[in-house]
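hi!! sorry for the late reply, been swamped w classes. u asked for the two structures so here they r. pasted raw, havent cleaned anything up. first the sequence of the first protein and right below it the tokens
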Amino acid sequence: MKGDELRMETETGSSIQATEDKPPGCSEAQDDWKWQLRNSIKDIEGLKEKFLLKEEDIDTLPGVIKYFPFSITPYYLSLIDRGNANDPVRLQCVPSEKEIALHLELQDDPLGEEKDTVLPGLVHRYPDRVLLTLTNMCPVYCRHCTRKREWHKGFWVRTSEELEKIYSYIRTHKDIRDVILSGGDPLILSTQKLDGVLESLREIDHVEIIRIGTRCPVVLPQRIDDELVGMLKKHRPIWVNTHFNHPNEITKESQAACDRILCAGIPVNNQTVLLKNINDDAQIMTRLCHALVRISVRPYYLFHCDPISGTGHLRTSIDKGLEIIKAMRGFTSGLCVPTYVVDGLEGQGKVPLQPEYLISKGKDCFVLRGYKGEIFNYYNPED
């Protein structure tokens, strides 16, 4: 699906520059998610209008954007301190010449998603669940995205024919009990189209739960309106996984968006990505997780940033992630501590990592380290 058909489907329209910067929610127009999409910044001229760019940026960024496009909603733009080149929101959405620097260890598809793709739009890696990519479009294109490889291929939405083949595959594979809707961001599609997808999945008896991966509560909270939430509520059990990376992203608008989902009886989990110079600090991560729990969003995963082409400047060491978890575990509520995981290469799945609390083990006794660093013996009973 391309061109005019695609624009009609997503109702994004063309790229129109916002003429003034107002706080989000200050006008009826800006409260409309379609207005937000129409007025997103998508080109170098929009960046020059909103940011004080260096000459070298003006020269190099068009080459970056050609391969790794970008889009920033007016709402998400309003969260940026534009006088600070290292603002944590800016670093997540404004393109950088560092994205096309050579990093030999990086790959377009290091997780092997294409290897596990059984049909266009359907990844079947784990026995009891599948991932369905409805589109490769997003309100904001995160510079650390694990599917950056899709951006330079043009933007698309799954056709009805593609979806029917996917439903047929799921029907004939009765071990599948969990379907994850992803993209891109599935909530960029119209409520009517999403309703049709969810209804078709709900007609398959062995599909028990549906998960939706979306960053809309963070970058486009206006999308979480009464019409969308009312539609989602019809198809429960549904789980929403969203993607806050920094405390600055938790605003009254994003809180209200999450609250609408929660009040519809839909749990909300958060999947943070560990990002250099953005959240690779125990105090920042603790502040983020405390803020998430305050708005009833569960800190679920802390992902190590995948070795994706175009993300090398945002990747930290694994030791940094372990250091952060160690600084949190025991020093704040366990509810606030996400599970730190590395997504295994070539389809190996998520590998949870913890600091070294197990020192040694014998038949009758384990030697453990507590959260304060003190070592103690723990009797190990027989099975």
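now the second protein. again sequence first, tokens right under
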Amino acid sequence: MSNQTTLPTPSKSMMKKLMGSTLAAALVVAIPVTAITQVSQAATASDNLTAAKRLNAILTNTKSMTANFTQTTKGTDGSKSGLSAKNGTFSGTMSLKRPNNFRWNITKPFEQLIVTDGSSIWVYDKDLEQVTHQSTEKQLGNTPALLLSGDPSQIANNFKITQPHSHKNYYVLYPKTKDSNFKSLGISFNGGKPIMMVLNDSLGQVTSIKFNNVKMNPAVADSEFKFTPPKGVDVINQ
């Protein structure tokens, strides 16, 4: 363990805020950014119960998944959260396995790893030499990152689920808890595969995540979801 925690530079602090959105975002979705801001005003094609059942049916078939992703976060004025276009866009790989195993690995433009085995969530910033550790009990109610890897039957307990158009496989979820770090989450599927994600967070930012090379129900080793802090890094328990 190092003696002192190194404070991040301002630009890295802003990136950390984006990564907070990533953790709150981390899974599946998609509808155009303009559509998700208008969905609350659109007439829904089915009631919440029907939408929840349809989403549950899709997620129940997801036992495991791997994919590549590209993530972009923009501020309310359309700028990339005050950062350059390069810094506002992140890419990497992800994997999940039921129950409650999830791995989100950002590789560009810097490295950050988010891992959970269902009991703990680890966030490792390689360049800052820092690890944040938190119990999933504090996150289960408002973390879309655990959406696909969790229990589909419990989703309706934490989210109001809508399906704006019955013939399209995209859903918009609204957290029921007042202290959630996001306002709405859009999820879109193609052939049962999540293809993109759009998240409106409590900071007024819009995060979109596109998935490609999606593989459904592959064999994923349990070791993918275990994490041991590297020697010499600062560990922050929350």
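hope this helps!! also noticed smth abt the second:
The two ends are 17 Å apart (CA to CA).
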